[in-house]
Amino acid sequence: MLASILASGLAVGAIYALIGITYNTMFATSRVMSFTAGQLGMLGGVLGSLFTLKLGLPWPVALLLVLAGCGVIGVITEIVAVRPVLKSLDQHLYVLTTLAAALLIQQFTAIQWGTEPQPFPRLLGLGSGIWDEKYWLPVVVCAATIVGLEYLYRRTLVGRAFVAIAEDNFAARALGLPERDLRMASYALAGAIGGLAGFAGGQLLLAFFANGPLLNFYGFIPVALGGLGNNRGAVIGGIALGLFQQAANFLVGGIFSSVAVFTLFIIVLLAAPQGLFGSTASRRV
Amino acid sequence: MNITRRNIALGGAGAVAAATGLARPALAQNEAIRIGWLAAMTGPSSAPAIGFNRGVVFAAEAINAEGGVRGRRIEIVTRDTQGDPTKAVNATQEMISQARVHAIWGPTNSGESLAVTAIMARAGMPNIHPCVVDSLIDVRRYPNAFRMAPSNTQWDDAVRGYCLDRVNARKVAVIGDTTGYGVAATNASAQGFQRAGAEVVYKANIDATQPDMTPDMLRARNAGAQAIVVWSVSTGMIARMLNTRASMGWDVPFVGHPSLSSGEVGTLIERPANWEKVYAVGYRSCSRDASDALPPRTTELLGRLRGKVDLRDTLLWWVANGIDAVDLVAKAVEATGSSDKAAIIRHWNTLTKYPGYFGEYTFSATEHNGYPTEDVVMSAANSARDGAFALAPGY
């Protein structure tokens, strides 16, 4: 039982963490919580299945196309749902616009792809039982994504520009950084990460249009637990959520596991409203 | 006499009334028999309606090709409800007040039917449908509504009977999804097993999007389940459970909802062998026996359908039920010589073992569940061919 909890808990936790990172990546350059994050994860699975099983492409090619496709969806989200409301962030209009965009993506997928879950192929054909690739692949991909992002943010000029925009938007613009282009690039990057989450977790979640809302909810929890904008917090929060959810599935089962997850979530937020790894923001008065 | 606007208006109204009254007999003799068809042709759950529709269109064309009913053509008034109860309500009201249909077939899913049944009852509209929710049939509240398919209770009886009498499972696990239907069906099924003296060793409602079914399957095995009874329309959840059963090396039989035999399940299982020992609710009229033969009347139907209706991507019972629906309205008009709503309802109330293709329907003034319980059987879930299934072992 413990092995099963660990295998599936780590796998779904890694997927939730990647969706949490998608939220954070979009938030960093725009200060907007875009609720299209879960839909990008859903699209990763659906497009992956489309390219591999329906069109017969090799999975590496399919993966590249998924990353590109989801990146484009990310950019479109920025143009359509985020940019028009940036000037009135305090009114939180982005909640409506990004939710509307998410709904559009989901309905379009339901119409074009169908409302029944469809298979996602085995990619590497490695492992069986609790060592099946469907369990460890999301974990490996999550780890690789974290390493890649750390490298991007710490070692590259573009990454440092992202960080600068995230730290102080006005100062970065005063220094001549192309804020709009960087924001679009960060949305493309977020789209690719979301798509990667869905592709890596496709064997577990299947290619199913209804995965979007599920990932939206469970991907948001690591962000709230780990602290907004904190990728490491999102990873720890995501893994903890996955393990707790699977343990609750084993111990209390069925619908009560969801109750247990959200009860813990509320308790944590009551104890630490800024998240477990977030810092209290200071504001000049 | 003064010519006033009031006199002109009254005179005009009288003239229109007289003209309408005089024209009515001639109009009724040639007027098409309009059958409203509330079909979820697009959107989620559209597969059944597409199958039903093939039967409906086939039956209407066949009757019209033979000259109609007493010289009156059948006209199908189809409205796509997209599976949405709100759209079903709007379509029903339009059919009653504008299209002025003589009877309505459908909706074909319970959610929509729950929304429109009372509206049809208020209008006294003859309504036949194949929806399973028990409360949809109530002769006191809905004297106009007739069910020409099994109720949920009949499904439940068939599943329980198969588990207890043919699988000889005295300890069962009952598992459903977390939808309203899943919870209600799971509770009803568990209570039925307990009343029958069986032991429900595990009962659960699982979120259909839960990626790993190992926890519930392990608990069911540890509890000593000898059969897993499934009440869910979620093919993803069903396939995950079957894959988990295989990975556990457990050969417990699955018995339950017709979705167990859905073609979608076949695409989602990891190996074809994972679909063995899975038995779904089916119907004797659309099941092949041990010699691979369908009942004679169904064979005759297949002969009529050959080359005209594609059965490869649908279920035979959907098509047969659609044909029966149109035929039931046509026969009522033929027998009574009238398309009057009350006359159609009165006629249906007298039917005993009416020989449809899907089954022999029996209705009375006090019983509008018309499908015979003994014709609800279990099918081998992985045996679909041209829309029909093989009978499960033991029949």
Task: Report the portion of residues of chain A in β strands.
Answer: under 5%
What's the CATH first level of chain A? Answer: Mainly Alpha
- Number-wise, the strands of chain B total 15
Q: Output mean pLDDT of chain B.
A: 91
- SSE arrangement of chain B, N to C: HEHEHEHEEHEHEHEHEHEEHHHEEEE
Strand pairing plus helix content of chain A: what structural class?
mainly alpha
* Quaternary class: heterodimer
Proportion of residues in β-strands of chain B: 15-25%
**Main sheet attributes: strand count, strand direction, barrel closure of chain B:** 6 strands, mixed
What does this protein structure show overall?
The complex is a heterodimer of chains A (285) and B (395). With 285 residues, chain A is mostly helical. Chain A has one domain (2-120, 132-271): ABC transporter involved in vitamin B12 uptake, BtuC (Orthogonal Bundle). Chain A is 75% helix and 0% strand. Chain A is built from twelve helices and no strands. Chain A has helices at residues 2-30, 37-54, 59-82, 93-113, 133-155, 157-167, 169-174, 179-200, 202-205, 211-226, 231-251, 254-271. The longest helix of chain A is centred in the N-terminal third of the chain and has 29 residues, at 2-30. The model of chain A has no long low-confidence stretch (mean pLDDT 90). Chain B is α/β, with parallel strands linked by helices. In chain B, α11 crosses α12. A six-stranded mixed beta sheet of chain B has the order 7-6-8-9-10-14, with helices on both faces. In chain B, strands 2-1-3-4-5 form a five-stranded parallel beta sheet, sandwiched between helices. A two-stranded parallel ribbon of chain B has the order 11-15. Helix content of chain B is 44%, strand content 16%. Chain B folds into two domains: 31-151 and 298-374, Rossmann fold; 153-285 and 378-390, Rossmann fold, CATH 3.40.50. Chain B has helices at 5-30, 46-65, 85-99, 110-123, 152-166, 180-195, 214-222, 235-247, 263-268, 296-305, 316-336, 341-348, and strands spanning 33-39, 74-80, 103-105, 127-129, 145-147, 171-177, 199-206, 227-231, 254-256, 278-283, 287-288, 354-355, 360-361, 376-380, 389-390. The chains are: A mainly alpha (285), B alpha/beta (395). Chain A binds chain B through residues 1, 4, 8, 11-12, 110, 115-119, 129, 201, 204-206, 208, 210-211, 214, 246, 249-250, 253-255, 258, and chain B through 43-45, 178, 204-207, 209-212, 214-216, 218-219, 235-236, 239, 247, 264, 267-268.
